[in-house]
């Protein structure tokens, strides 16, 4: 898929979002562990995307830059929806969380490729987390919000993978193998931190830490292959 098509998908999503009035019900009940977990994810979704937008601007592709701006706006809409979930449950957003601070620092340590490699760690974790929230909350409103966020995240993944594949295409095989290995290391660390930090919430949603880690690794393997495989070669997925 080219980035013009990605841009059109983001534009269509933005139109649908603008035409929709987000419900803001009150009086819901969620387990305290799930509330704390949603607060941390809400803080992570609530960034301004300045670093990513700047890196995309330096790449020199106005169509890709426009798509990135809409991606950031979509992520910010997730923060709004999660804030509504917290109000529904009688809680409030938090100012931030140390895991998000570390994540942002790592992302800003290099150029666009590092931004996207690190961002994709959050995206793959989000795929499994929002599925757990959708399927395990036992609340129709929360399940609807989580399901709609999950649908957005599922569109984000190919968008970022296409750009990463393009970015690594000229890299020699040895460099791609090294990058793939480093990406696996980062992902393993990230998913273990999330599983430990959100373990109580995951249990309340019917997912064990082990299951969460296994599922995220299963989602991540094909992404590594999609980015680093080239004609006539293969990159091992662990």
Automatic annotation (TrEMBL):
SUPFAM superfamilies: Ferritin-like (SSF47240). Residues 12-31 are annotated as: Disordered. The chain crosses the membrane at residues 173-196. The keyword Ion transport does not apply. InterPro entries: Ferritin-like_SF (IPR009078), RNR-like (IPR012348). CDD domains: Ferritin_like (cd00657). Keywords: Membrane, Transmembrane, Transmembrane helix. GO terms for molecular function: oxidoreductase activity. Residues 12-23 have a biased composition (Basic and acidic residues). This is Membrane protein.
């Amino acid at each position: 898929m080219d980035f013009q098509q990605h841009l059109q998908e983001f534009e269509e999503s933005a139109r649908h979002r603008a035409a929709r009035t987000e419900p803001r019900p009150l009086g819901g009940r969620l387990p305290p562990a799930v509330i704390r977990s949603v607060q941390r994810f809400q803080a992570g979704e609530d960034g301004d995307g300045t670093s990513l937008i700047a890196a995309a601007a330096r790449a020199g592709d106005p169509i890709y830059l426009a798509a990135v701006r809409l991606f950031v706006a979509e992520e910010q809409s997730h923060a709004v929806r999660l804030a509504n979930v917290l109000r529904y449950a009688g809680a409030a957003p938090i100012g931030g969380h140390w895991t998000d601070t570390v994540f942002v620092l790592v992302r800003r340590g290099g150029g666009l490729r590092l931004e996207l490699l690190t961002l994709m760690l959050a995206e793959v974790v989000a795929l499994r987390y929002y599925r757990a929230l959708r399927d395990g909350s036992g609340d129709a409103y929360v399940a609807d919000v989580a399901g709609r966020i999950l649908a957005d995240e599922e569109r984000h993944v190919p968008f970022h993978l296409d750009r990463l594949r393009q970015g690594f295409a000229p890299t020699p095989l040895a460099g791609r193998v090294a990058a793939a290995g480093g990406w696996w290391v980062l992902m393993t660390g990230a998913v273990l931190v999330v599983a430990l930090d959100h373990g109580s919430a995951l249990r309340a949603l019917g997912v064990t830490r082990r299951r969460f880690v296994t599922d995220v690794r299963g989602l991540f393997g094909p992404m590594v292959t999609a980015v680093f495989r080239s004609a006539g070669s293969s990159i091992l997925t662990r």
